[in-house]
Structure prediction request, 501 residues.
Amino acid sequence: MKNKIHILIFMTIVFSMVFITSCKKSLSELNINPNETITTNPEYLFRYSLKQGICSYNSDVNLKQWGLMNWMMYFATRGGVEPGKEYVVPTGKDAFWQEQYADALCNINEVILMTNDIPEDKNKNAAARIWRVWLFHRITDLWGEIPYSDALKGLSELNYTPKYDTQNSIYLSLIDELSNAENTMDSNFSFFDPSADLVCKGNISTWKKFANSLRLRLATRIKYRLPTIYSEQIANLQGKSLINSNSESILFPFNSEKKNPVYEASFTGQAIIQNNPSKFFVDMLVNTNDPRTKIFLEKSPMSVLPWIPKYKGVPNLVLTTDPLWSSYNLDGNWGDISRIGNWFLRNETPGVIISYSEVCFLKAEAALDGLWTGNAQSLYEDGITANIQFYDVPGDTTWYVSNTEINTYLQSIPAVNLEQIITQKWISFGFENGYEAYAEYRRTGFPKFKKQDGSFISESAIPKRMIYPNFEKTLNNQNYLEAIGRQGADNEFTKIWWDIN
Prediction:
């Protein structure tokens, strides 16, 4: 009973009958003897949470790829949006909530409970807390107020109706948790086996850098709400070790066991049938001679004809009935529009949790604010260079960009300012990190999106958050009502706490 029983205990339960945020499951339902002592192995639970936290095909493709990536103008829906809808409505949001709470968070929380107050397990406990922060921060960034301090207590305290916490209190807690966890880690104590630690391979130093880099991200997220906290965190992080190269980026290694969702979508044909790179994204790359163009985009099939452009995107926010579509050949095999670059369609393309290039951009912003030691322009250029080099595959020149090409590009783009930092960060998130692109757009209003006619798209046209799952409205109604009473109406255009742009 020792090794794999955890999969039965903490797997996703019957969502329509149970509060997802409480991890409730009876022993009789699991066919487990309630009188028998069950010992689980935190290594297995840790590994399982890492794997499930990255998301499944259903939530990742339906929420991130077809939803957030459309909102953030990486993709556009082929053939336009339906009349009466100015944006694509993602279908994977409820699945995302379920998977994060019932699978990833319940399992990682069990690791924390199992290793609490055990000195020799202090590193395991700290890593689990860091991962829990990453999971919670993505959920609150999408919904705002969420069950947090009361969540995950269905098994331990029989609490099946967790209260919602304000996003203000959640963020302050997450930042403190990262600081405490990083300070706790000690290389003199044992840690998870590399086979269980899928993202840092059992390296304590890498986990500390992950914690500090994530804290930099979270502190920056709330800088317009809590500027004093932001300044204090930046000052504290100056002397800390952060991710310092592409090789130190925190990545999830997709493989035959856990397939890359974008690869799965392309394999089933969805990437070709439903979406293509947007006109805004394609024009951004092509018009600036961005050397990443050949990485992000495949040439349109018809571009073998000399009068057809090599790269052409699909316009966003155009109705299905618009006559504009007559100028686009949407044939998947022989059309005049570009496709997502093959680099992103490989199963071995990793999932990006936090990258070196993002850390460079965060430091550049802090330097621009006069808070980080270093030159903002240099840090900004470091972020661009790191992102371009991230796609290089040893032994394959398909996506290789020379230093000469990089330097030429750096010399051609505008000097550093906040808009340029966020715009370059947006490019670096392309097809990979729609969650962060969506968060940063709401925080800053950059990049400035344009319609197909060149006019700017109002920020008010882009949804601000996800609607709470129906099962929360039904099964946790009182706490749900209290949350929307504080936060505002439960619709896509109610801003979350840190979004004051």
In short: DSSP finds 20 helices and eight strands in the chain. The two ends are 53 Å apart (CA to CA).
